[in-house]
Design brief:
The protein is α+β, with helices and mostly antiparallel strands. Helix content is about 15%, strand content about 30%. The protein has one domain. It is globular and about 45 Å long. Pfam families: DUF6593 (PF20236).
């Protein structure tokens, strides 16, 4: 069994950023971003600082928050990184986060597993 830290290591011990090494050797950073109490996850190309992919969290809706929505992963169509690498790394991070009781992505230490359901993917 592989651990999350084996495949998507933290940038440093106290960092909230996880590193994704692409098949060609280039590195990308999964960064947890919190705005107005809502946490999202972004895959950043450190050379250009551009967002390659972004996760929109699920929302239960109601009140001023608007309509409910499912979790979704949005990927730039012009990215050089393979969709397989982006999707698999996101699934591993999300599964580990759920195993930790829906905490933050940076705190997730669980095993790299499959079998999660829920998010949709657009690109």
């Amino acid at each position: 069994m592989h651990m999350l830290s084996d495949w998507l290591p933290k940038k440093s011990a106290l960092s909230r950023t996880r590193l994704l090494v692409a098949p060609d050797g280039s590195q990308y950073h999964w960064k947890q971003v919190t705005n107005w109490g809502s946490t999202s996850l972004r895959l950043i190309d450190p050379e250009t600082q551009e967002t390659v992919a972004q996760v929109r969290s699920a929302r239960t809706g109601g009140g001023f928050l608007g309509k409910p929505r499912r979790m979704s992963l949005h990927v730039r169509s012009d990215t050089a990184l393979s969709l397989d690498a982006i999707l698999l790394s996101f699934i591993v991070l999300e599964q580990a986060r759920r195993e930790q009781g829906a905490g933050s992505y940076s705190d997730a230490r669980g095993a790299a597993g499959a079998g999660m359901a829920g998010p949709s993917v657009t690109f």
